[in-house]
Specification:
Largest sheet: 13 strands, mixed
Distance between the termini: 70 Å
Strand order of the largest sheet: 2-1-11-10-12-13-14-15-16-20-19-18-17
Radius of gyration: 24 Å
Strand content: 15-25%
Helix content: 25-40%
Bound molecules: adenosine-5'-diphosphate
CATH class of one domain: Alpha Beta
CATH topology of one domain: GMP Synthetase, Chain A, domain 3
Structural class: alpha/beta
Length: 547
């Protein structure tokens, strides 16, 4: 049979371009607000119509600077309206918005800016000193654009800085978008590189638009024009979990914290702006809990938090339930734009008692439409979806990475298009996925596996414990055994004995950590995860009392 005209649908070929997201918001939700705390200090208010016009000015300014479709334009910036405009403007002129995570080590920032061959860097006032220091090591950056107005331009900077507001003022709010194909690149984000150099994930217009449409759905973020959303997850970490795109598709009010991540500031913003959905990693929500415990304040209209990036402890879900705030656990990664699963309920879980529901809610969630998952053993054979068998988690879908930028990390992809997430997981008959561990963090004790995540989840519920981390330490008989490190809450008396007593009966006996060390703090990666590579190094010669 010839695949001719009669074999195609007769519908329009409307390319899925990110510019269409913000055009939609500007037309149908013109006055819906975008509120940000700024780097200059004051709270700033604008709306989708203004931001769209200014994004088009960004596109014009980049063309005037000689930028061409496909060029990488970097941003080193917090969540603000200017960063959102820059994103849409860069992608809208056909460029690739490369978000750089300022929390990476300096050598990593240099590596990725050079690897990406960034031509322009947009950056916030807070990074002037950093950029001045790193500029001699950047080999391809031609222009430095400071995201501020003339009045705030520093007088004493050694770089030839361009002023963002002045660049925009010279351009038209009707600058046309570049008619690139939907498969053209729109964004670039590097993984945090806990092993080896960071690897680049290049999002396409199509993948970003499909992901935004999927993320609005009822059983994902359930976002619409009445939603007031606060992405605390930064735009440089997996696209702020797509919220700058998803909020535009939904026509939601968008609230952003700028350079602020401290609980009192975020709390004030949530209450004042009547935020009902906020998204952040567990560490932020832990800090917020402690703030609320101290002040006795409420979270205003907040009724949902989306939490991901690391496992959400049971105690956190219960604590927010008591405040009337529903925790939606998310699992995803930079390579997945980032959404893979969401922990929304189904009729079967609605029918369960609270304790059983919590058992389901500490799982990472169900795959959303557009994400295929399977678990496989070491030979690549698929394992059953029975909630018991666990294996390497592979994923496939239209917003999942197909290859890393410039061909790095090819071993993560197989011939059938599956991407190996590096996570080890179970899948259950209701469709819930549960991470057992990162493949590299799992503790191999006498041929059996101990899940560091499961142990941490329980340990963080112990009285007085703020944060817990479990790593495998060498043991002469068992090969590896778990060592538990705990950080006490402010002023709390936590001891090895008090933690072990709490764990007794809550975990399998052979999972009991061989030792507990109380530490003042734990190291984190640039994306807020426990830096287990550093801890394994630090404790590699640790003598367990059982050894
Ligand atoms: P990085 O660049 O540090 O890899 P990502 O955010 O892309 O940053 O990390 C993705 C990884 O984070 C996942 O593969 C998984 O191991 C972990 N992760 C994300 N969400 C969760 C979750 N809800 N529970 C447990 N682990 C999670």
């Amino acid at each position: 049979m010839i695949w001719g005209e009669t074999m195609s649908g007769t519908m329009q070929d409307w390319p899925l371009l990110v510019g269409k997201l913000i055009d939609h918001a500007a037309i149908y939700h013109a006055k819906r607000e975008i509120v940000s705390l700024s780097c200059e200090g004051p709270k700033h208010r604008t709306n989708w119509a203004e931001v769209r016009g200014r994004a088009r000015q960004v596109a014009g300014a980049l063309r005037r600077l000689g930028m061409k479709p496909g060029d990488r334009i970097a941003t080193l910036a917090w969540n603000t309206w200017r960063h959102v405009e820059s994103w849409y403007g860069i992608s809208g002129m056909g460029g690739v918005a490369h978000t750089i995570n300022p929390r990476l080590f300096e050598e990593q920032i240099i590596y990725i800016a050079n690897h990406a061959e960034d031509r322009v860097l947009f950056f916030d006032l807070t990074f002037v000193k950093l950029v001045e220091k790193l500029a001699p090591s950047f080999s391809t950056i031609e222009h430095y654009v400071l995201l501020t107005d003339r009045a705030h331009m520093p007088a004493d900077c050694s770089l030839n800085l361009l002023c963002y507001e002045e660049l925009l003022a010279a351009e038209s709010v009707d600058e046309p978008w570049e008619p690139v194909p939907e498969t053209a690149p729109a964004g670039l984000c590097y993984t945090s590189g806990t092993t080896g150099n960071p690897k680049g994930v290049q999002y396409s217009h199509r993948s970003n638009v499909l992901h935004a449409m999927a993320a609005c759905a009822t059983d994902v973020f359930g976002m619409g024009a009445r939603t007031v959303v606060l992405p605390i997850a930064p735009m440089y970490h997996a696209n702020a979990w797509s919220i700058p795109y998803t909020a535009a598709a939904a026509g939601a009010k968008l609230v952003m914290g700028g350079p602020n991540f401290d609980p009192p500031t975020l709390h004030k913003l949530i209450v004042e702006e009547e935020v009902d959905l906020a998204l952040a990693v567990p560490t932020i929500w832990l800090g917020m809990m402690q703030h609320l415990e101290k002040t006795g304040e409420s979270l205003g209209k907040l009724n949902r938090t989306a939490i991901g990036g690391s496992a959400v402890p049971r105690a956190m879900i219960e604590a927010y339930d008591k405040l009337g705030v529903r925790v939606l656990q998310l699992w995803g990664m930079t390579e997945m734009s980032p959404l893979g699963t969401v922990g929304t309920g189904v009729p079967e879980t609605d029918a369960m008692g609270y304790g059983q529901q919590l058992d389901m809610r500490i799982k990472q969630g169900r795959g959303l439409f557009g994400v295929e998952m399977k678990i496989v053993d070491d030979d690549g054979a698929e394992l059953p979806r029975d909630g018991v068998a666990f294996g390497r988690l592979l994923v496939r879908g239209p917003w999942i990475v197909g290859s890393y930028f410039k061909g790095d990390g090819a071993s993560a992809f197989d011939a059938d298009g599956w991407f190996d997430t590096g996570d080890v997981a179970t899948l259950d008959p209701l469709g819930y996925m549960q991470i057992v561990d990162r493949a590299k963090d799992v503790i191999k004790s006498g041929g059996e596996w101990v899940s560091s995540i499961d142990l941490e989840n329980v340990a963080v519920g112990a009285p007085g414990v703020a944060e817990a981390c479990v790593i495998g330490v060498h043991h002469p008989k068992w090969d590896e055994r778990p060592l538990l490190l705990v950080v006490p809450k402010d002023g709390a008396a936590v001891t090895r004995e008090s933690v072990l007593a709490y764990l007794d009966g809550k975990i399998a006996k052979w999972w009991t950590p061989d030792d507990v060390v109380v530490v003042p703090s734990l190291p984190h990666t640039a994306t807020g995860k426990l830096l287990k590579t550093a801890l394994r190094e630090q404790y590699k010669d640790y003598k367990l009392p059982t050894a």
